[in-house]
UniProtKB/TrEMBL annotation:
Name of the featured protein: Olfactomedin-like domain-containing protein
Domain Olfactomedin-like per the UniProt entry, residue ranges: 224-476
Example of a GO biological process term: signal transduction
Disulfide bonds listed in the record: 225-407
PROSITE patterns to which the protein is assigned, alphabetical: OLF (PS51132)
Main localization category: secreted
Lineage: Eukaryota, Metazoa, Chordata, Craniata, Vertebrata
UniProt signal peptide: 1-16
SMART domains: OLF
Keywords noted in UniProt: Coiled coil, Disulfide bond, Glycoprotein, Secreted, Signal, Synapse
Length: 483
């Protein structure tokens, strides 16, 4: 093969070598092999592995308690789109863009080389002929007569279009040298980034963030728990219905259900009004009606995870009614529990069995003859209504105005009338009790329902035909795993 063809072959070989290095060696060098390209052309693995300092945009969370006893829960987590703002991420994107530009340049070179190589191959026979004639003329100048000279001149003229092609090859060779230098610089920068991020394995970092998020959620749940120390002034939401009744929202944690339910009266009622939102309840609009298959007794109803739990009229049977399917899912007798005003609260109203929910689940407050009329607390399994555990508080139920559960502690009021206060607490976690003195304003002088909602951390009350809310103050000490 002639010298020009050897040079062309060398150029093609160099281009193939650089292309192969770009597609295989470079990605493996910086750990990009097998890494998918995500938004904005960034490498998801490398960008996600960055761990910038708080000053660079990370949100700082921790858990602590301030001087007033309020718990502050925080966690270390990246702000949204943090990776897009991080300087190292921007630098990496710029490098990736350079790699893409180099790749595009290599593709153009490859296409042009293939096209020009075809042209060179087409003129290869002509080049061999000219090369032979030049050798003959060089060795034997006398053999070059006018006719053969003209013939040689014509063939050389046919080769003239090959000159621009060869000039382009020279330019391409210079471009390859420049690209090789850029690639070398890129590899150095990417290696530096890799070393900088080498201490942070992506999967390990992700697990750390998940752990911190779990701690945050745990801390937030503890924010709803603690010892009751105060009750706010009443917030009247609406005045509707008769003197006795109950109203509620779903007590399940977590839940995005914003519906409000209202049940007027304390015995033989079957009509439950369901409002779409609290605002609809306040305005008395946008509601549907549920007609229960069995009438209720008392006002101690509770909604938990989309189902209404209530006491069946003239019995100690508990019923779970599912609102979506409008059907009874389960019925179960609360063994030994008094009913039909055998052991009601001080205001009567068939309030023998009071169902409620808190952060720990579903509860029943009642009493039995063997317990001599003292309040009994039972924790219930929500699906089957089976009694899981029972406590005898020793407090006479007829002396209680109302009661409610917060974080496994039963709080009891001493009256349903004006001047009432919360004056007894029973702690199921330690099976101990204490007398308290927590006043609250009984604005309408006759409370017939009082329940705590752990989702909203408020008390729902039905007070003489008024639907009223109270905020609660809980004293809490948050301890982390490091404490």
């Amino acid at each position: 093969m002639s010298v020009p063809l050897l040079k062309i072959g060398a150029v093609l070989s160099t281009m193939a070598m650089v292309t192969n290095w770009m597609s295989q060696t470079l990605p493996s060098l910086v750990g990009l092999n097998g890494t998918t390209i995500s938004r904005a052309g960034t490498s998801e693995r490398i960008v996600s592995a960055l761990y910038p300092s708080p000053e660079e945009g990370w949100q700082i969370y921790s858990s602590a308690q301030d001087a007033d006893g309020k718990c502050i829960c925080t966690v270390v987590a990246p702000a949204q789109n943090m990776c897009n703002r991080d300087p190292r991420s921007r630098q990496l994107r710029q490098l990736m863009e350079k790699v893409q530009n180099i790749t595009q340049s290599m593709e153009v070179l490859d296409l042009r080389t293939y096209r020009d190589l075809q042209y060179v191959r087409d003129t290869e026979n002509l080049m061999k002929t000219v090369d032979g004639k030049l050798k003959t003329a060089s060795e034997n100048p006398r053999s070059l007569n006018p006719k053969s000279f003209q013939d040689l001149k014509d063939k050389v003229t046919q080769l003239l279009p090959l000159l621009p092609v060869l000039e382009q090859y020279k330019a391409d060779a210079r471009m390859i040298l420049r690209l090789r230098e850029e690639v070398r610089n890129l590899s150095l920068v990417l290696m530096a980034i890799q070393e900088e991020m080498g201490a942070y394995d992506y999967e390990e970092l992700r697990q750390r963030v998940l752990l911190l998020e779990t701690r945050l959620h745990s801390c937030m749940q503890k924010l709803g728990c603690g010892k009751l120390t105060g009750v706010s002034n009443p917030i009247t939401v609406r005045a509707s219905g008769s003197r006795f009744g109950s109203w509620m929202t779903d007590t399940m944690i977590p839940s995005s259900d914003n519906r409000v339910w209202s049940m007027d009266g304390y015995f033989k009622g079957r009509r439950v009004l369901e409002y779409r939102t609290m605002n609809d309840f306040m305005k008395g609009q946008n509601f549907v009606q549920h007609l229960l298959p069995h009438p209720w007794a008392g006002t101690g109803h509770v909604v938990y995870n989309g189902s209404l739990y209530y006491n069946k009229y003239q019995s100690n049977i508990l019923i779970k009614y599912h609102f979506r399917s409008r059907s009874v899912l389960v019925q179960r007798s609360l063994s030994g529990a008094g009913y039909n005003n055998t052991f009601p609260y001080s205001w009567g109203g068939s309030s023998d069995i009071d169902l409620m929910a808190d952060e720990n689940g579903l509860w029943a407050v009642y009493t039995t003859i063997p317990n001599a009329g003292n309040i009994v607390i039972s924790r219930l399994e929500p699906q089957s209504l089976e009694v899981l555990q029972t406590w005898d508080t020793g407090f006479p139920k007829r002396s209680a105005g109302e009661s409610f559960m917060i974080c496994g502690t039963l709080y009891v009021t001493n009256s349903h009338l004006a001047g009432a206060k919360i004056y007894f607490a029973y702690y199921t976690n330690t099976s101990t009790y204490e007398y308290t003195d927590i006043p609250f304003h009984n604005q309408y002088s006759h409370i017939s329902m009082m329940d705590y909602n752990p989702r909203e951390r408020v008390l729902y009350t039905w007070n003489n035909g008024h639907q009223v809310l109270y905020n609660v103050t809980l004293f809490q000490v948050i301890k982390t795993a490091e404490d």
